[in-house]
Automatic annotation (TrEMBL):
Gene Ontology BP terms: proteolysis
Domain Peptidase S8/S53: 188-672
Entry annotation: catalytic residues: 197 (charge relay system), 306 (charge relay system), 631 (charge relay system)
Similarity comment: family membership: Belongs to the peptidase S8 family.
Phylogenetic placement of the source organism: Bacteria, Bacillati, Actinomycetota, Actinomycetes, Propionibacteriales
Protein's recorded name: Putative S8 family peptidase
Signal peptide: 1-40
Location of the PA domain: 478-549
Domain Subtilisin-like protease fibronectin type-III residue range list: 729-820
């Protein structure tokens, strides 16, 4: 929770611009260091150069506040709802959809015309908006326009940098989940998984199927092989051709309608009864990357293998024999082997890796198509913006509103805190964990043996000479380069016939073994310098991958000379590698965007050394490969959602019911020593447990109303009229409070999917947690509200404390994680009032009992450095300011005479060498701009006022600039705060009143209220 006071809301007519959301959340308070005061004689400083975005043209995505066709519920008079009922797909060809599309296009044209722009590409199904080529100045003006939710630059997104996951998940075997669902041939039947990725290699056995038949007389025309797999009762789940369109009646009663497009080395004949849709979306990327710089097919064919890999994990065929480079790995299966796959290629490969990726505009087109086609599940294993009002996230909101479950990768930027991606609550965010490894052993000549992982040591290698790569550098290469085995870094004379030790880092892991092979080496020991994941990659030479302390021991031994080594398959030691552990790379919480009030990732799934299909053309001719990443974890969950939606299971459930079932039945991970770990910022609710997910007992429902309320709680005006929800109160199957000051109560709603009595219990360290009511007695389908009050007892301040709330029923256990960070105070960062009111009442919530003081500094206005003066459009005026020591807060203000003019405001810090750095900037052009810096260091700063647009019909803009700062011992208006001192109780609101008098209504003022812990609240007037 960000504050116990009434949140400061920023409303610009009907919107809060996406790229200024962080400013909204901080009430435009910038806590970035220093700040200025007016000096009688401005210091001499160098001129600063302003950021250049406003002059540069670019492609921008404009998202309107209007609902897209997939989510429109009939709010506009005269236009009927187009949102589909459960089980129906979006009918974009209906007369109602056509009329509403026309309405949206008029809105797009009207909005674009306000800044002289034109829609280049229109979005109406999953997102109501358009793409346009504009200057940064035009984009910034649109961001402040009524009816616009966000304006964002079109961005190129990249792939986030038991030994078979289906066995580990408990899907196979006579007691496995597939068996409970009628066998692999029925697991996921009637469900379509849409994969937004790099395309598909259709010849892979993971995507094999019978040829598609025309609808007329279909049952008689089924191939004999396919007829054995499909009973007559399942005929409605058999895809068929209707002309060139592929259709299939689904488990929820709706109909999938897909397309298999022609293109480079791809034709409609590549689709079949497994692969029932294949389309590519790359207009933006193809326009940006010339043909001679591409390394891809202009078609749905996969040019890299990433998309084939994720698709095969989610819904690849059952019992596919997988081998690579002469190594036989047995049979693999997708999580939902009976589900169908529809591929939407958005991720494109370039010869230059920095240009490889997926543009947001192309992704939006693909989401539109997936919604329109009628997929049930979307897998998105591509990096994404964590802003919930970014275009792609808004499109996913529309998809979820249409009943589509969206699984997204948590990102591969761990283990640092707050690296998790895709934090919107309507998406299921998936982290990665390890599974049972393919063991390999490194036995040194001194008979010491070390355990690692390997998928390439079939027969013993050695005894053979062992050498550190750093000791075998080729001429012109450094020991550091050779130590990580970069291409052409090893000297063949020193390496031939030896096993080489290569450190992790630098080039990709398989690149290292390729370099060893090039130099004549016969094996590799891949060493992690620090503890990291162990990956069973396919290597060019037999390889064992080890962690510390083995890494250092092996390298130290090799450095002594005459070292030998033997690499063997399996575990030849008494050690073991504990699993499942969180993958080192997996993105971690807390989610900064909500101040820690939303728990992400939601859960974790297998994502290390996962074997799946790839594109042979870019994988050395191999059809299968091991890969690691949250990219591999997300499709595991997409596949589980497909199982849940399958015929005879829960085809009528909402995406959030499925998400809830997965989270509340999850289990905990282990650490390297095999001990239980429960870190919610790493594992979320825990690792998925398919054996329990089918009967979760209770679910936590949520939908469009909840999502809009959540956005309102973040300060985003959804134009829905809904009440804002504190993110901590969003009805998630988890509880997160980023600022727990003493005590806080949150609410949740639960719906029984299994009738019975459920008794609540709590496990949490340093916290007292009370659940009311303690016992829930529910009929099937009944919903009740519960309150959970969390009070700090012994938990350390400023450190996260976590635990679980568990409801136990006769046949189900429902567990949700909770994580809170106790603080000694929760107070608003900034409050705004008017001088005429003479006072401002607000509340803080102390986290500690005892004497509480509140001390006011200011108010300060500062003399106007400029009276009203003109500034031409595109020009800027700069004002040096010297900030004295002990300044509590500074406010920089620029005000235009016309409300239709647009100004930008920047603040730079001048460094001792006369260089400078930007420390604060306005979020978007406006007639009135104000920037605030808190407790700045003493020094010199430059404030720059830029004219971003004149009022219509005027040659320039008249404006006034001033700097005000609050310094102890000076102030205006007899500024006081009461009570100045009082005994408070932890967790109880403490009401304060700031008072002043005799101030002008035309002057901006700034003040500061400081609390016992040194933090405070900025008070701005006018």
């Amino acid at each position: 929770m960000s504050s116990s006071a009434t949140p400061v809301r920023v409303r610009r007519g009907t919107l809060a611009a996406a790229f200024s959301l962080s400013c909204v959340l901080l009430s435009c308070l910038l806590l970035l260091g220093p700040s200025p005061t007016a000096a009688a004689k401005p210091p001499a400083v160098p001129s600063v150069t302003l950021p250049g975005e406003l002059s540069a043209k670019g492609t921008y995505i404009v998202t309107l506040v209007d609902a897209p066709i997939a989510a429109y519920a009939g709010e506009v008079p005269g236009y009927r709802a187009t949102k589909p009922d459960k089980g129906d797909r979006v009918d974009v060809a209906s007369s109602d959809a056509k009329r509403y599309r026309s309405y949206l296009r008029k809105r797009q044209d009207t909005v674009a015309a306000r800044v002289g722009a034109k829609p280049r590409e229109r979005h109406e199904v999953g997102l109501a908006g358009f793409t346009s080529t504009m200057t940064g100045q035009q984009a910034a003006r649109l961001a402040r326009t009524e009816g616009v939710l966000s304006v964002t630059k079109d961005t190129l997104r990249h792939v986030p940098d038991a030994r078979k996951s289906t066995d580990f998940l408990g899907l196979s075997g006579s007691r496995g989940v597939w068996s409970k669902l009628g066998g692999p041939q029925k697991s996921g039947r009637g469900v379509v998984v849409g994969v937004l990725d790099s395309g598909v290699w259709p010849e892979s056995a993971s995507f094999a199927g019978a040829p598609l038949q025309q609808a007329a007389g279909q049952r008689k025309q089924l191939s004999a092989q396919h007829a054995k797999q499909v009973k007559k009762t399942d005929q409605q789940f058999v895809p068929k051709l209707s002309g060139d369109v592929i259709t299939m009646v689904k488990s929820d009663g709706g109909t999938f309608t897909g397309t298999c497009e022609s293109g480079e080395e791809f034709s409609p004949a590549n689709c079949n009864t497994k692969l029932i849709g294949a389309r590519s979306f790359g207009e933006t990327w193809l326009n940006a990357v010339p043909a001679d710089q591409r390394a891809d097919y202009v078609s749905p064919r996969d040019g890299e293998g990433h998309g084939s890999h994720t698709a095969s994990i989610a819904a690849g065929n059952h019992n596919v024999e997988a081998s690579a480079d002469g190594h036989d790995y047995g049979a693999i299966s997708g999580v939902a082997p009976a589900a169908k796959i529809a591929v939407y290629k958005v991720l494109w490969q370039a010869k230059d890796a920095t240009r490889t990726g997926a543009y947001d505009t192309d992704v939006l087109d693909a989401v539109d198509a997936a919604i329109t086609d009628g997929v049930d599940v979307i897998n998105y294993s591509i990096s994404t913006n964590d802003n919930p009002v970014s275009p792609v996230q808004v499109a996913f909101l529309a998809a979820a509103s249409a009943g589509i479950f969206v699984a997204a990768a948590a990102g591969n930027s761990g283990p640092d805190a707050s690296t998790v991606q895709s934090v919107a609550p309507w998406v299921t965010t998936v982290g990665a964990h390890t599974i049972a490894p393919y063991y390999g052993t490194v036995t040194l000549g001194n008979e010491n043996a070390y355990l690692g992982v390997s998928s390439t040591v079939d027969q013993p290698v050695g005894p053979a000479p062992l050498i550190n790569g750093s000791a075998a550098a080729a001429n012109g290469k450094t020991a550091d380069e050779a130590g990580v085995c970069t291409p052409d870094s090893l000297d063949p004379y020193r390496v031939a016939g030896k096993v080489v030790i290569c450190d992790r880092g630098g080039p990709g892991r398989p690149v290292k073994s390729a370099e060893v092979k090039r130099a004549g080496g016969i094996g590799m020991v891949l060493t992690n310098p620090t503890t990291n994941t162990l990956d069973a990659d396919l290597h060019s030479v037999p390889t064992v991958h080890v962690n510390p302390p083995a890494s250092a021991a092996i390298k130290e031994y090799a450095a002594k000379g005459d070292a030998t080594v033997t690499l063997t398959q399996g575990n030849q030691t008494s050690d073991t590698i504990a699993y499942p552990q969180i993958a080192t790379f997996s993105g971690r919480g807390p989610a900064l965007l909500t101040g820690g009030d939303t728990l992400k990732p939601d859960l974790v799934a297998p994502g290390v050394s996962i074997l799946g299909a790839v594109a042979p053309s870019s994988n050395g001719g191999q059809s299968f490969a091991f890969r690691s990443g949250t990219s591999q974890a997300a499709p595991q969950v997409a596949g589980l959602a497909a199982l849940m939606y399958g015929a005879g299971v829960h085809p009528d459930w909402s995406p959030m019911q499925v998400k809830s079932a997965l989270m509340t039945t999850a289990k905990d991970l282990q650490d390297a020593k095999g001990r239980r770990v429960t870190d919610p910022f790493a594992q979320g609710a825990g690792r998925v447990d398919p054996t329990a997910m089918l009967k979760p007992g209770l679910v936590f429902p949520a939908g469009l109303v909840d999502w809009f309320g959540y956005l309102e709680g973040l300060g985003v005006n959804t134009d829905s009229g809904l009440t804002a929800i504190d993110p901590s109160d969003y009805n998630a199957p988890s509880i997160a409070i980023g600022r727990l000051a003493g005590s806080q109560t949150v609410t949740r709603k639960v719906t029984a999917v299994q009738a019975g009595r459920y008794r609540a219990s709590v496990s949490a360290s340093g916290l007292r947690v009370r659940v009311s009511p303690t016992v829930l007695k529910l009929r099937k389908g009944e919903t009740k509200k519960v309150t959970i009050t969390i009070t700090r007892t012994k938990a350390k301040l400023d450190e996260a404390s976590s635990g679980f709330v568990t409801w136990k029923g006769e046949h189900a256990r429902v567990r949700i994680p909770l994580v809170v960070t106790p603080r000694d105070l929760d107070a608003p960062a900034q409050l705004t009032g008017s001088s005429a009111a003479n006072k401002l009442r607000y509340s803080v919530r102390p986290g500690l009992s005892g004497r509480f003081t509140a001390t006011g500094t200011g108010l300060s206005a500062g003399d106007p450095i400029t009276p009203m003066q003109p500034i031409p459009e595109g020009a800027n005026e700069q004002y040096p300011v010297e900030v004295p020591a002990d300044t509590k807060v500074a406010r920089f203000t620029a005000r235009a005479a016309s409300a239709q003019a647009k100004l930008n405001l920047y603040v730079f810090q001048i460094l001792p060498d006369d260089s400078y750095t930007l420390v604060a900037r306005s979020s978007a052009p406006a007639a009135n701009q104000s920037l605030v810096l808190v407790k700045p260091a003493a020094g010199i700063y430059v404030a720059a006022v830029e004219n971003a647009g004149n009022a219509p019909g005027t040659p320039s803009t008249m404006f006034e600039y001033r700097t005000g700062l609050a310094v102890p011992g000076s102030g205006l208006g007899d500024f006081t705060v009461s009570p100045a001192s009082r005994t408070v109780v932890a967790g109880q609101p403490h009401r304060l009143t700031a008072r002043w008098s005799g101030l002008s209504a035309e002057v901006p003022y700034v003040g500061w209220v400081e609390y016992p812990n040194g933090t405070g609240t900025v008070i701005t007037l006018n």
